Amino acid sequence: MNSIKYFSHTLFYIVLTCLVSFAASANVINGVRVWPAPDETRIVMDMADESHYSYFTLSNPQRLVVDIQQTSNKVKLPIKVADSPVLKQIRSSSPKDKSSVRLVLDLTQSVDSEVFKLAPTPNGEYGHRLVVDLTHPGSATSQAVTKPALAKNQNVTVTRDASQYIGHDDVVIAIDAGHGGEDPGSIGPKGRYEKQATLQIAKKIADQLNAQPGVKAVLTRKGDYYLRLDKRSEIARKEKAHLLVSIHADAFRTPEPRGASVFVLNTRRANTEISKWVEDHERQSELLGGAGQVLAKNSNDRNVSQTLLDLQFSHSQKEGYKLAKDLLAEMGKVAHLHKSEPVNASLAVLKSPDIPSVLIETGFISNPTEEGLLFQSQHQNDLARAMSKAIMRYFEDNPPEGTLLAARKQNTKHVVKAGESLSVIAAKYGTSVDNLLQMNRLKSTSLAVGQVLMVSTGHIAVSPSVAIAPRNESQVITHVVKSGEFLGKIAQRYGVSVNQLKQQNNLKSNVLKVGQKLSVVTTVVVAAPAPVRKYTVRRGDFLGKIASQFDVSVDTLREENNLKSDRLSVDQVLIIPGK
Question: Quick one: which of 9, 56, 162, 189 could link to 545 by a disulfide (CB 3.0–4.6 Å)?
Fold first, then answer.
């Protein structure tokens, strides 16, 4: 009887120990994924339940150690990582207790790291996750820019240089492929991910735009990795983009909805974002340049900041809406439209006050037919061409100042005739060969008959027939004889003969004295004066802008044109002095 009782107690303790052990390791690591991106490497651990964790770093060699309590591991380790500049491998190590898992991330160098957990996604694509972000040294994320503080009562003059208004810069367009990495976006009935379609379409739009002279398209992400929403607009700002276009695919709980839409920032979101930017002085400085820094450091007047930012947002909203109309008009020719008018929405990627932004839903991936179309190469090409055409038309109608598109809008066309060279055409229009080369993106000075060149219309054409030919003029130079000099040496120096020197100075012999003064008459070739250049003032011109365009000073312009003030009138003709 005692032996039976003993056996029962033993069995009870064994079962209890197993239950406690099971409860202690209730969580499980089901998967580990690594997503290297340009600025950071993200490690995502798929967990069975919410994680309880701690982490610390070790040096010599550099490591990040993550302890996950009450957890077991189903993942095969180690995992070698080849395409990250900071992470070599992920391996396991001896845990601090039997119910925990210890993961060691072997690093190539010391990095900033962040560990956090994510809740399951609403649609069930992902469960609980534990995330490790490793920032790449030298990336924009790792560089905290410290701006010099202004001295108290320091006077700061904020100017906008005239070179910002003229030039041949590219129009920069940021193309943002939605989602990426562990964020798949919406998933179609056949299991295809939105993140894949958006990247494919974004790359094709970029290719279309980059084929246009004066246009540069940049991608916010070039591969399958995660990018924070605020990082997307930061990349656009870093690239000095004139426009941000975010590409997405729509989804609904039923398969019937279909068609493309274009979203723009609504007023409520704009007002909310303005308040946030007013609170953030550093972002004011980013937006408003020197003016923002002055406001941030020297002014407590929130109304001034609010007004300036409000103007920025109003401009971005207006331009975004204008482009959205053009996009819908072109996309409607190659795809069904879900909405024929721009849709106002509160979307984070549209929040930049200084960059006009639109979000394009290219179709419903939840619709079986459109899911197929979104991954069809020809349909992607059609969408990319339609969107690129709309973007180009918008910028041709509204070219940013200082860009090649703006310069071309103000230019005229010249058709090359037989016998014409770049120098002849430059002289005709009072411009330079370099300017023609730059404006027309020419790699050489060779021209073909019938070739069309863009020439600045700010110049009035000058007929070559009125040009004055080069002429010879006599010039008298006084030469003081130095020790060791003789007539032959002096004559050779000035390109004259000994007889000419003797005749000009009434010399009866070749004997010279140190300090003796000789008159030397030489002939110099005086180049023909440059053709008179004239400029007709256009709306928005000012003296500084015109002076910078022709590489002369404002004072020279005033003097040449007898200007008593800097006020100009439209169609006023100015003489541009020669250099």
Answer: 162
